[in-house]
Amino acid sequence: MRLSQATLGQLPASVARPHYDRGALRPGIVHIGVGNFHRAHQAWYLHRLMQQGEALDWAIIGAGVRPYDAQMREKLLAQDCLTTLIELDPSGKSAEVIGPMIDYLPIEDGNGPLIDQLADPGIRIVALTVTEGGYYVDPVSQGFDAGHPDIRHDAANPDRPRTAFGAMVAALARRRAAGDGPFTGLSCDNLQENGRVLRRTVVSLARLSDPDLADWIDTHCTFPNSMVDCIVPATGTQEIALVQAFGIEDDAPVTHEDFRQWVVEDDFCAGRPDLHRVGVTFSDDVHAYETMKLRILNAGHQVIANAGEILAIGTIAECMAHPLVSSLFHKVQREEIAPHVAAVPNMTPAAYIDLVERRFSNTAVVDTTRRVAFDGSSRHTGFVLPIVRDALAAGAPIEGLALVEALWARMCDGTREDGSAIAPNDPFWDELVGAARAARDRPAAWLEQRQFYGDLAGNEGLRESFARWLGLIWSDGCEAALECYVGHASVTSGRAGTGVSG
């Protein structure tokens, strides 16, 4: 059955579907960056609330700012913005159709349709999933990157911006002039203090062209921090076949694990849906939840994904089934990451590690190693290197973390140990490949990428550990290095020995 509003009643009985009147929905949220994660996470929570007869004036209007967003727009509009979600529970799969999105804006140069919609006073929340690398943060200073070409363009052309943040600034200028009041900016990306980062980006951009407007935004708009969590694989032919097995023709289905979490500061200047009714946690200490999730789950992904790519392991579940890769995860987490993570209500770091191990090992979730290894330049700098800095400051161990960085460097050589090529997998792929190949003879060349490592390049302890691990990986292979770290072998003169230690 082709998915549409008209065919909802004809879907198989096993498929859950909206029982609210979608024709009565009114928009209250614009979401920029309508990918799989948003539909499996934030949209699902809103759908659950609508199923209770609540939040019918908080419907979502989708938006994008890049040409490639047009493909998703076309697919979703063709099925009335409905999405089939398939939950990948190890005990069995289930499907439901959700419908809180009611439109998807045209994507045009200058972002006119987006600005017009954001200027509508009925829009009270502007949410974003634009990836952790999309906030124009200088990787060294961690401040606003005012020199980026996109930012320079938007500062010079505030009425025809190129970025989502420029569209937000332009719309807020209209709302201020009309006396229509502010909206809340809600980042749903994996960034530490993502609300603070979003505020800085929007206010700093506004200040480049209109300092008075920047002050007004800073005073009147709110940007709550939030922590989001759900493993959502990319959609490919396997996912299309899976939704068809449920009797549905959906060109943009989403699969997801059987776990979700959303923790948000309750700081919404123009109101919000009652999301606490459907399991969202509102907390004044989002930072602690963020730290636990980013350091254990997100950094944990990077711990295993680069090794998985080098060893040609296809999925994260298969990485966790590999005895050495899973032992790497287990040891780095407990000995080098958990000491730098505080407990949150009802969850210790050790218990969260156990939870993440179970989630990563879910064989029903076909989450590719390549997807998780994508954009390491953002993910290592955002998730792994802050732990390295804390560990160095505390005089704590970093051997496993140095190994993780060496594995990333080896992966960025662009080849696997079976001889196959790794396709470009980072916005800075060419630079990373050049540094990785230079590091084969001079390991310090990798850490000297100061746009990622900053002053860590000068830390002698990190340099020594990194050089030792990278040398071992190149001389004896990835598995030999993993064996040495997890205690199944010894290192002799920079090469793996045959003895067993520990």
UniProtKB/TrEMBL annotation:
Pfam families: Mannitol_dh, Mannitol_dh_C. One of its GO terms (molecular function) is oxidoreductase activity, acting on the CH-OH group of donors, NAD or NADP as acceptor. Residues 28-276 form the Mannitol dehydrogenase N-terminal domain. Gene3D superfamilies: N-(1-d-carboxylethyl)-l-norvaline Dehydrogenase, domain 2 (1.10.1040.10), NAD(P)-binding Rossmann-like Domain (3.40.50.720). Residues 285-468 form the Mannitol dehydrogenase C-terminal domain. Keywords: Oxidoreductase. It comes from the Bacteria. SUPFAM superfamilies: 6-phosphogluconate dehydrogenase C-terminal domain-like, NAD(P)-binding Rossmann-fold domains. The keyword Ribosomal protein does not apply. This is Mannitol dehydrogenase family protein.
